[in-house]
Amino acid sequence: MEKLNILVLEDDRLAQKVMTAQLAGHNAETAGDLKTALKKIDEGRYDMGFFDLMLGPDDDYSGLKAIAAAAAKGVYCVVVSSSDSEKIIDRAYELGASDFYAKGNEESNVAEILRKFIQNRRAARASDIFASAFITGDPETRAAAAEALKYAPTDLPLMILGPSGTGKTSLAKLLHEHSGRDGAFVSINCSAYTDDLLEAELFGYRKGAFTGAADSRRGRLLEAHRGTLFLDEIGTMSMNMQMKLLKAVEERTFHPLGADKPEHSDFRIISATLEDPQDLIARGKMRFDLFQRVHGYTVNLKPLARRPGDVFLLAQHFTKGGKRLSFTAEAKAYMGAYPWPGNIRELKKFVDLVSSGPGGRIGLEEAKKHLSGQQGAARGAADELYVYALEHGLEAALQKVSDDVITRNLRENGGVRTRTLDDLKISTRLLYATLKRRGEGEKK
Questions:
Q1: At a CB cut-off of 8 Å and minimum separation 6, what does 412 contact?
Q2: Are 144 and 301 in contact (CB under 8 A)?
Q3: What is the largest CA-CA distance in the chain?
Q4: How many whole angstroms separate alpha carbon 31 and alpha carbon 65?
Q5: How many Å apart are CA 162 and CA 165, to the nearest integer?
Q6: Rounded distance between C-alpha atoms, residue 55 and residue 53, angstroms
Q7: What pLDDT digit, counting tens, does each position of 420-442 carry?
Q8: Distance (Å, whole) CA 356 – CA 350
Q9: What is the distance between the alpha carbons of residues 277 and 419, in angstroms, rounded to a whole number?
């Protein structure tokens, strides 16, 4: 276990003993008055501090002064006090406190505070995260992932939005690795199962529960006990399955198919979808109460086309430990401008293809050849649009193009309409007219 240097400011001797017992295994020092605390803060180096505020019967919250001094030196300040009025809480945070707890539940509170602090510090120190576990050099994507990592050590459910192939699963694994949970990372793609099969996969079943159930099987919920359950493409789950999942999420108990007794699982949920959950709710495709349960903090991942600098970072990563590649300037320009409709998944396939060839220097023609399938599809789409224009008129064809572009950009932005307005430089009126034609209407 990582050892921390911790200062405890507490005037009550019994309370000091309680706190130091909870901090066993760390380098904990105590101070019983403000003068001693300020001297230790000035001369020592502490990672954390636990501060009482009332230091004596006639004290005027002098512990607040220790918070200000400690926070100025970068100490993570936690108040543990019996004085928890709104005014005092606000003042403590204003002076630099990071947490505020009322006295009386130190046994569980201190352990949780330490766990979160250690996990957050490990995440902050892991400077190679964006060069190994989640490859990106894009400032906006890095910032989004780094912010999500702050919530990794908590039990808060997380939701990841973004088009298919943008790295949602990789980010979910990273969040689990920095959660501090000692259980497994268990992933299931909800779109790959029918209702019956999904229920059996999630909840498990007993032998003989249905035709073909020759043996009992643990469900994914149970496999994720003390770990993370990653529900990919949760937006494709039927309303009936959503209702069953909601009950399991709320109660952390569920009945495997054919079981008389319920199972219990302490799982943390991370979910992902390529559609805007609010639009799914408006269209009756997602239960609002389930949405409230599975989203706590939401992170949006941009498509690869909006992260062009990541193309070659990822290409280098995909060839690490194997055959290395180089690209001519013309190939780089072509790949940088390429739309990558399949995002990172398409790039990985492309790198695998060119790596399997006889050469290692990839020129423009080879890049075009292996990406020509998508270009051919684009030409086919252009021919299809031409036929549509002949049948319905040019104005209708142009409107179709406009609607398709707006719809795609909305999807790639996770349904965030303000981003689409900025990306395409269109009016709000045109956006909502498109949504109305597509049967979505305005958000309430």
A1: 162, 163, 302, 303, 305, 306
A2: yes
A3: 89
A4: 14
A5: 8
A6: 6
A7: 888 888 888 888 888 888 776 54
A8: 10
A9: 16
Residue 5's nearest CA partner among 18, 23, 32 is: 23
Q: Are 157 and 229 in contact (CB under 8 A)?
A: no
DSSP string across 272-291: EESS-HHHHHHTTSS-HHHH
| Number of DSSP helices (H) and strands (E) in the chain, helices first | 21, 16
- What sign for the dihedral angle of Cα 21, 27, 31, 37? negative
Given this model, what pLDDT does residue 116 score? 87
What does the pLDDT look like over 1-35, one tens digit per residue? Answer: 678 999 999 999 999 999 999 999 899 999 999 99
**pLDDT, tens digit, 9 for 90 and up, residues 379-398:** 455 656 766 777 677 888 88
- Tokens matching residue 15: 């309370």
What pLDDT score was predicted for residue 441? Answer: 52
CA distances (Å), 301 to each of 73, 274, 294, 406, in order? 35, 10, 18, 18
Quick: pLDDT tens for 169-192.
999 999 999 998 999 999 999 988
Q: What is the distance of C-alpha 187 from the center of its chain?
A: 14
Question: What angle, 0 to 180 degrees and rounded to 10, lies between the N-to-C axes of helices 394-412 and 417-424?
Answer: 130
Q: Considering the entire predicted model, what is its pTM?
A: 0.70
Where b means 16+ CB within 10 Å and e means fewer, 72-87 reads: eeebbbbbbbebeeee
Q: Residue 102 carries which DSSP code?
A: E
Nearest to 316 by CA among 339, 305, 333, 332: 332
Measured from the Cβ of residue 173, the count of other Cβ atoms closer than 10 Å reads 18
* pLDDT level of residue 358 (50, 70, 90 thresholds): confident
Q: How many whole angstroms separate alpha carbon 334 and alpha carbon 363?
A: 10
- How far apart are the C-alpha atoms of 241 and 199, rounded to whole Å? 7
430: exposed, middle or buried (C-beta count within 10 Å: 0-12, 13-18, 19+)?
Answer: middle
